[in-house]
Amino acid sequence: MVQVIYCRGAALGWSAIDRLAALAGDFFDSPVLTLQPGRAARLKGAALSLLPRPRSSEAYLFIAAQPQHLAAVGDLGSIVGRRGHVCAWVIDSFWTERLPPTIAWSRPVDSFYITDAELVGHYRRATRRPVHWLPWGADVVGMPDASGPRPVDVLRLGRQPVQWEDDESIGTLMAARDLAYRGRPPLFEDPVRNQAEVVDAVSGAKFVVAFGNISAPDLYTHPRHEYLTGRWTEALAAGASVVGIPPNCVATRELLWPEGLVTLPTTDMRGNLDLVTEAVAGWSPAQAVRNQRLALARLDWRRRLLRVARDLGVSPAGADRARAVLSGRLASAG
Q1: What is the pLDDT of residues 175-227, one digit of tens each?
Q2: Angle at alpha carbon of residue 304, lines to 299 and 309, rounded to 5°
Q3: Do residues 73 and 164 share a domain?
Q4: 70 three-class SS
Q5: Which of 227, 225, 218, 266 shows the shortest CA–CA distance to 243?
Q6: How far apart, in whole angstroms, are the C-alpha atoms of residue 185 and residue 160?
Q7: Which residue from 24, 27, 9, 18 is spatially nearest to 320, judged by alpha carbons?
């Protein structure tokens, strides 16, 4: 059995990883113990009491939103001992500065997964443990069929460069070109409602605007490491193409496909309107179907969980369900 533990980010915007944690619990037939930063800095006391006693064959998957959350497993060794393998999957692994300084010699994490391929060597040196690349994904199976109507030509999702920040003025400029523009979807405290809002928005759009952290920096983005995030994977999973400047990283090159991207030369919104208009004019419903089909093959979270199960040497019933549903959706997607 694999027990799933999840330490989520403190801010809004983690609903895609909340969904990953729920999928992991279903995949491994495990209750998900969720820790909130600031409320449960370490795994002990009442939190530990929620975990079943380990068996000799038991393993643990710890999903950490950010590297500093690895400190939360500091007391897991008191119940795991040397009987259970603990693997940690760090989502925002680009924050190398936030790795706990004791990570190299402290138990109980035995192996790591990170979402940034370029940093595997850094993490291996810092942790002195096996480290593997396990990139971002999306619940592609859970998305509506991509062949549905897409009344929105261009959708703004999340952080943007300053030139793309004013939804009202951009909507006016787009309307002058007969383009239907939708500004940022609202954020909700409830992660389930928040994720449902994102899914609804991207499923109804032909193109989603997204820029990487170097072309659109902010206080909460890394100033040097470029990285792929859920805006690309969620959009493509729903069938939408992405217009903007993607991050220059391994994940972009190995996971995404050129036909699903419209790469802009600059962040200048007005200067790129011709390119956006041209992209919308050339769009066809087949493009959305193709995007979702490729996302099923490359991006679904279930494929990441199948990798974890294989590495741990376990065969949960959820693995068979994942293979069956992925095969079925791929067959129906043509």
Answers
A1: 999 999 999 988 888 888 999 999 999 999 999 999 999 998 887 889 999 99
A2: 155
A3: no
A4: helix
A5: 266
A6: 13
A7: 27
245 belongs to a structural domain? yes
Residues 289 and 323 in one domain: no
User: For residue 40, is pLDDT > 70?
Assistant: no
- Pairing mode of beta strands 241-245, 261-263: parallel
For strands 2-7 and 59-64, give the pairing.
Answer: parallel
DSSP string over 169-217: HHHHHHHTTT--EE-PPPP-SSHHHHHHHHHHHHHTEEEEEEE-TTTS-
Can you tell me the distance from the alpha carbon of 293 to that of 283, in angstroms, rounded to the nearest whole number? 17
pTM (two decimals): 0.92
- Asked if 156 and 240 touch (Cβ cutoff 8 Å), the reply is no
- With the C-alpha atoms ordered 271, 275, 278, 284, is the resulting torsion angle positive or negative? negative
* 89 in the same domain as 112: yes
- Domain that includes residue 229, residue range: 152-296
- What is the chain's alpha carbon radius of gyration, rounded to the nearest angstrom? 20
**Positive or negative: CA dihedral 315, 321, 327, 333:** negative
Tell me, yes or no, whether 161 and 265 share the same domain: yes
Nearest-angstrom CA–CA distance, 71 and 68: 6
Residue 202 lies in a domain: yes
313-333 pLDDT tens trace: 999 999 999 999 999 999 988
DSSP structural state of residue 86: E
List the CATH number of the domain containing 206.
Answer: 3.40.50.2000
Amino acid residing at 51: L
CB atoms within 10 A of CB 35: 21
